[in-house]
Specification:
Blueprint (H helix, E strand, L loop, with lengths): L6 E5 L3 H13 L3 E5 L2 H5 L9 E5 L7 H11 L5 E5 L4 H9 L4 E4 L4 H32 L9 H13 L6 E4 L6 H10 L8 E5 L5 H9 E2 L11 E2 L1 H4 L4 E5 L6 H13 L1 E2 L8 E2 L3 E6 L6 H4 L4 H7 L2 E4 L10 H16 L8 H9 L5 H13 L14 H29 L4 H8 L3 H11 L16
Parallel strand pairs: 1-2, 1-3, 3-4, 4-5, 6-13, 6-14, 7-10, 10-13
Antiparallel strand pairs: 8-9, 11-12
Helix pairs in contact: 13-15
The chain binds adenosine-5'-triphosphate (ATP) and magnesium ion.
The site of magnesium ion (MG) has 4 residues, from helix 7.
Length: about 450
């Protein structure tokens, strides 16, 4: 099926053929762009080009096969259809093996060209749609996102790109929820190590023996309970990145062992006498200010200096407030997609909260706020000051209830004092008889409780 309006690039050094083919493609509903040479065509092709390319093989300068090879570098999924003359069939078959989409032999019928273009276009549309879905999913999972336009964040991103490929270990400092893991993840993602493992280990909350075997691995029988050989996280991250979270909580003896690994770049799994070389980048994260000897506490200073070759500091969110709207917007969209809800309109109260709050939980707290706001579960977005009409309503409701209670008490007191005499009670209260009876009913008061004084007919 032809897909109206889709661009097709047609390359041929024969001007007449260019004109005729352009017309054929147009009639089939395509938007052809024709070029007399491969070089000219290349300038119009980028990785997301939504159409396909049809090119003659034999042309002066770059051939159609050269063009195909260049396009493969730009976007390996971009369909290229080769047009061959006599004797080029072998070349074309070779190109098909290399991933060219199709070939048509000259002279060809218009129908044959359109049929090939239709199929190529269908494939292209699918590829692009899948890419879009994948990108959306990535955005949704927040995987790719390292957002922030505050100067400190721009600088941080630039630094991460700059050192991603350098084999230096990195220490990431920042308050809880400020994005330390995001930084570690990008150091890995933007490095040549990205095709290998990113291995994370939280050093807090695990018993020392567990961290040790987690980190270094062990042979079967290395200690009681070690039935099988276990590859440690360090070895697992060979070629990749080892992320040590909450490094400040790492037990002292392990700090010593880790320091040895960092210096020697080799490991010795428990229960072996073997030494294995290891190629890894360590990214350690800490909430503590390890540069300050007081705050460092029992953390080994030599390990600190070893890790401190590069330290990346994440500013707390309250020191980059200009990023709050950007982050909040992205989190709202992501939450809405995840929960299958519409993206909520920002309310004045939500805005006030964004502006006034101090965000001790940093970006994570903002993320959770966005999720609750999307679900309509954000009490923070409720007005905090008395000048809001919403609040006035609420206190009014309280007033009405108080007045009601006061009225009921008053009626009971008067009835009591008058021994249940309704007429006298009505006189004292100065209300119409009907109103009096209505009020008794509404407050659930029965006159009989207050003695046998003469009743007054409610009329
Ligand atoms: N710059 C950012 N752009 C987009 N999302 C971010 C950014 N910074 C943090 N986040 C998100 O905020 C949450 C908290 O970030 P992260 O886990 O990296 O914080 P952390 O500093 O490691 O926290 P903790 O100290 O508690 O371990 C994550 O969901 C993360 O995706
Ligand atoms: Mg973390």
């Amino acid at each position: 099926m032809s897909q109206p309006g889709r661009p097709v690039i047609f390359v041929d050094d024969d001007a007449d053929l260019r004109a005729a083919t352009a017309q054929t493609l147009e009639l089939a509903g395509y938007k052809p762009t024709v070029f007399p040479s491969a070089v000219a065509a290349l300038a119009a092709i980028d990785a997301g080009f939504p159409g396909c390319v049809v090119t003659d093989i034999r042309m002066p300068g770059l051939s159609g096969l050269d063009l195909f090879a260049r396009i493969k570098q730009i976007d390996p999924d971009l369909p290229v259809i080769l047009v061959t003359g006599h004797g080029d069939i072998d070349l074309a078959v070779g190109a098909l093996k290399d991933g060219a989409y199709d070939f048509i032999a000259k002279p060809y019928a218009a129908a044959r060209l359109i049929e090939a273009v239709n199929r190529a276009q269908e494939k292209r549309t699918l590829v692009l749609e899948n890419r879009r879905l994948r990108d959306d999913a990535v955005e949704r999972d927040g995987d790719l996102a390292f957002l922030g336009e505050a100067p400190a964040m721009r600088r941080l991103r630039a630094t991460i790109r700059q050192i991603a490929d350098a084999d230096v270990d990195v220490l990431v400092e920042g308050e809880t929820g400020s994005g330390k893991e995001v930084v570690a993840d990008h150091l890995h993602r933007w490095s040549r190590r990205s095709s290998r493992n990113f291995v994370a280990l939280n050093c807090g909350g695990l018993p020392e023996s567990v961290i040790e075997s987690e980190l270094f691995g062990h042979e079967a029988g290395a200690f009681t309970g070690a039935q099988k050989r276990r590859i440690g996280r360090i070895e697992h991250s060979d070629g990749g990145t080892l992320f040590l979270d909450e490094i400040e909580t790492m037990p002292l003896s392990l700090q010593t062992k880790l320091l040895r690994v960092l210096e020697s770049r080799q490991i010795e799994p428990l229960g072996t006498n073997e030494v294995r070389p290891i190629d890894l980048r360590v990214v350690a994260a800490t909430k503590a200010d390890l540069g300050n000897p007081q705050a460092r506490g029992s953390f080994r200073s030599d390990l600190y200096y070893r890790l401190n070759v590069v330290t990346l500091k994440l500013p707390p969110l309250r020191e980059r407030r200009e990023d709050i709207p950007l982050l909040f917007g992205a989190f709202l969209r992501r939450a809405a997609a995840r929960f299958g809800r519409p993206v909520p309109e920002l309310t004045r109260d939500a805005l006030a909260h964004l502006e006034r709050h101090d965000w001790p939980g940093n970006v994570r707290e903002l993320l959770h706020f966005a999720e609750r706001f999307t679900l309509g579960l954000a009490p923070e977005a409720v007005p905090a000051t008395g000048d809001d009409p919403g609040l006035a309503d609420a206190s009014q409701a309280g007033l009405v209830a108080r007045v009601e209670r006061f009225e009921a008490d008053l009626i009971r007191t008067v009835l009591q004092e008058e021994g249940g005499d309704v007429r006298r009670s009505i006189e004292r209260l100065q209300v119409p008889r009907k109103t009096f009876y209505d009020k008794l009913k509404r407050h659930g008061i029965t006159r009989a409780e207050y003695g046998n004084g003469p009743a007054s007919s409610p009329d």
